[in-house]
Design a protein that fits this description.
Layout (H helix, E strand, L loop, with lengths): L12 E2 L2 E2 L2 H11 L3 H12 L7 H16 L3 H17 L13 H7 L1 H19 L2 H10 L4 H14 L3 H9 L6 E4 L6 E6 L7 E4 L12 E2 L9 H12 L3 H10 L2 E3 L6 E3 H6 L5
Antiparallel strand pairs: 1-2, 3-4, 4-5, 5-6, 7-8
Helix pairs in contact: 1-2, 1-3, 3-4, 3-6, 4-7, 4-8, 4-9, 5-6, 8-9, 10-11
Length: about 280
C-alpha cells in the first residue's frame, strides 16, 4: 500500500485535481472509524458524482483492510457495500498490468508503481469478497430497508464478477420499475408492478408515470431459474430477505409480448442488453 507520506498521492487524480486529501482522511478512518469521515471520503473524493479516480484505486486496499479487521459488523457492511459500488462502476476489466487510461500517470510515477497499485486493488477486491458470508449472515438478522439489501446484492454481484447484473440492479435500485429493450423493434419496454401486488410485474409500451390507462402485457413468470446468474441472485436475495427482488426475478426471467411490435420477448436478456460492462 502507498505510504502515507509518499509523493505518489499528489500525482494521483481525484475530482478536484490531486489526491492529497485522501491519505489524510484514510488515516483518520484507520485510527478510529467515523461514518462522517467515511462519507466525506467516499462521496467527495473516491466516488464523486458516480465517478472513480486513480485515487480510488489507491484507497481500496486500506478500506479492505479496515473491513476485514473491524469487529463492528455494521462498519463491515457499510464498507462491503460502498467498495462494491466502486467495483461495479469501474471501467475496464482484467487490464493487467494496469488500465490503459493510466498512461500519463505511469509517466509520472513509473509503470512499476502503477502495476503495484492495480495489483493491490485487485487483491483488495478479493479480500472483500471473502466477507460475503459474514455480511449476509449479519444482514439476515437485521431490520433494514430493501434498498439497502439490494445494494448488498449489487456489491456481491460485483465481487463475483457479475458486472452487468450489478449495474442493472444499481440503475433500478429502488425496485419499483425496470426498463428493457425489445431486440426486434429496439423500443423500450417498461416493467412495472401491478397496483395491488408489488411482486407481480407487467410490461408497458410507455412509461406508466406519464401515460396512464395503458393496457399492459402479461409477463409469464418462470417457476425455476435455468439461468445460473439469475438463480444465484434469487438464492442470495432470499438469503438476506430481499423479498421484492426475490419475487420480481421470476418475472424478470420470464417472457412477454413486446407492447410495441408484438414480438415474443425474453425479459432478462432484454433487460441486460443496455448494460455493457
Amino acid at each position: 500500500m502507498i505510504k502515507w507520506d509518499s509523493d505518489v498521492w499528489g500525482k494521483l487524480k481525484g475530482p478536484y485535481g490531486s489526491a492529497d486529501n485522501v491519505p489524510v482522511l484514510l488515516q483518520k478512518l484507520m485510527q478510529e472509524y467515523s461514518q462522517e469521515v467515511f462519507d466525506e471520503l467516499f462521496q467527495e473524493y473516491l466516488f464523486h458524482q458516480n465517478t472513480i479516480y486513480t485515487a480510488t484505486y489507491a484507497a481500496m486496499p486500506f478500506l479492505a483492510q479496515l473491513a476485514c479487521s473491524t469487529s463492528d459488523a455494521e462498519v463491515r457492511k457499510e464498507l462491503f457495500i460502498n467498495c462494491g459500488i466502486i467495483e461495479a462502476s469501474r471501467d475496464g476489466r482484467d487490464e493487467a498490468p494496469f488500465p490503459a487510461s493510466w498512461a500519463e500517470l505511469a509517466e509520472d510515477v513509473s509503470s512499476s508503481v502503477c502495476t503495484e497499485l492495480y495489483r493491490e486493488y485487485v487483491e483488495a477486491i478479493d479480500k472483500l469478497r471473502t466477507l460475503t458470508k459474514e455480511v449476509f449472515a449479519y444482514t439476515a438478522q437485521q431490520t433494514m430497508d430493501e434498498i439497502e439489501k439490494r445494494y448488498i446484492l449489487i456489491a456481491d454481484a460485483a465481487y463475483r464478477g457479475s458486472y452487468i447484473p450489478a449495474n442493472m440492479l444499481m440503475t433500478f435500485s429502488e425496485g419499483d420499475e425496470y426498463v428493457a429493450v425489445c431486440p426486434a423493434c429496439e423500443e423500450d419496454v417498461y416493467l412495472w408492478p401491478t397496483e395491488d401486488q408489488a411482486g407481480i410485474l407487467q410490461a408497458f409500451e410507455h412509461d406508466p408515470v406519464f401515460h396512464t390507462g395503458q393496457e399492459p402485457q402479461v409477463i409469464v413468470p418462470v417457476t425455476s431459474f435455468p439461468d445460473e446468474e439469475v438463480r444465484t441472485l434469487a438464492e442470495r436475495a432470499a438469503a438476506i430477505g430481499e423479498q421484492t427482488l426475490t419475487e420480481h426475478l421470476h418475472y424478470l426471467a420470464g417472457e412477454t409480448i413486446c407492447p410495441s411490435c408484438s414480438e415474443k420477448l425474453s425479459v432478462w436478456p432484454s433487460l441486460l442488453s443496455t448494460f455493457t460492462k
